[in-house]
């Protein structure tokens, strides 16, 4: 397993492939909202197994925090600790305060990683989410 930042166009497209399979194909999120303008300026991260992309996420830098998003693992690779390793890698690489909008079904996963929910539930891409945050020093 290799965890890396997507530094070239090939890696970027592999991130988009994983996201497309999880969010567009599996969760039926419209492709025109799954990829947005933030994808041009944020940092993208990828997990590869046997030269195949299996997980991806992005990190958007703001003045006082980094927002993690589009965190996804292909269905075949879930419940193996891959998502946990990806989030851990990125949060320890960047450090500081992190926020994310968690789909409610993933709440326990993020709580296990030390994230704390705050605010009210909201709808994004027709899916109920809640904001969560964590500080890594």
How would the blueprint of this fold be written?
Blueprint: E1 2-5, H1 9-26, H2 31-34, E2 43-49, E3 52-61, E4 66-73, H3 82-94, E5 96-103, H4 107-112, E6 116-124, E7 127-136
Parallel strand pairs: 4-5
Antiparallel strand pairs: 1-2, 2-3, 3-4, 5-7, 6-7
SSE run: EHHEEEHEHEE
Largest sheet: 7 strands, mixed
**What is the quaternary state of this protein?**
single chain
- SSE class: alpha+beta
Estimated share of beta-strand residues: 35-45%
From the spread of the alpha carbons, the general shape counts as globular
What is the helical fraction, as a range of percent?
Answer: 25-40%
Query: N-to-C terminal Cα separation, in Å?
Result: 26 Å
Mean pLDDT, to the nearest integer, reads 96
